[in-house]
Amino acid sequence: MHTNILVVYKKNFEEVHDVALATVRQVLDELVSENRVRVDYTARETVRRADFDGPDLVIVLGGDGTLTSIAHSIDDSTPIMGVNSHPRMNDSDGSYGFYMGSDPENFKSDIHAVMEGEGIINVLPRLQAEIVTTSGNKIVTDPALNDLLVANTHQYQPSKYRLQRPSEGIDVIQQSSGCLFSTFLGQGAWFRHVANIEGSVFPLKEMDSKYLFVARDLPRDDRVDDGSYWAWTGEPTVMTSDMHRGYVVADGWDEFHFTRGATVTVDLNGPTLQLLTFRSTIHDRVAHWIGQQ
What we know:
This protein is mainly beta. The protein has 2 domains: 3-118, 3-Layer(aba) Sandwich (Rossmann fold), CATH 3.40.50; 125-270, Probable inorganic polyphosphate/atp-NAD kinase, domain 2 (Tumour Suppressor Smad4, Sandwich), CATH 2.60.200. Helices cover 14% and strands 37% of the residues.
């Protein structure tokens, strides 16, 4: 039985990425010649959601930005393998590659581990928002592996909204620069640059059921320590727009627009993502953020 593999690669005419692609292609060509796999290749700039309907495995060659840009098209049953095409360990200008479990040097052994069912499968939760318009139309946004922003489309204007988390007793009117939501793993991408949570640690048992929230640039007098300014919560957050035009942006990519009166409900019920790593789990990389509870 063939394993259908889709390789999505970063193409920006830098030699380091071309060399990495050549390495990956050479290894996969060997598996093709052994009649073990079928492989399709597509650049990130040309990939379409329909391309992800058939593969048994998606290999992303690039960095974290490449992976997050295409992960929203991948369902909860298709494993994804990140290969860092420009590792920082080899070049100070390279990519850290937090989600990238492999690299060109280790790719051959890692893909053989996948074929033998020996990779580490990290099942990661994702944020998602549902927009309900005043006419009752429902729009479900792309899932976010890192973070999700709800804000005024004109960033020079305040984001005005009603914020509710009824089970926590939160029902407030706010003006801020918008609300930022983050998964536990995604907090290093942007959230920690917005909210001062240095020194905070989180129980491992809560990683899959809770997310981080902060109202950006909320006036200091309104920064109450009750979960309306920032929170680590498992409850849905509901925002009712008082903006002429706002948007939801998942992982810094596609925008989903709404207008005044729409409600935006954010929770951690998006489809999970099966991320492959090989020498450590993804949580091992952020052990300093994880408490012993």
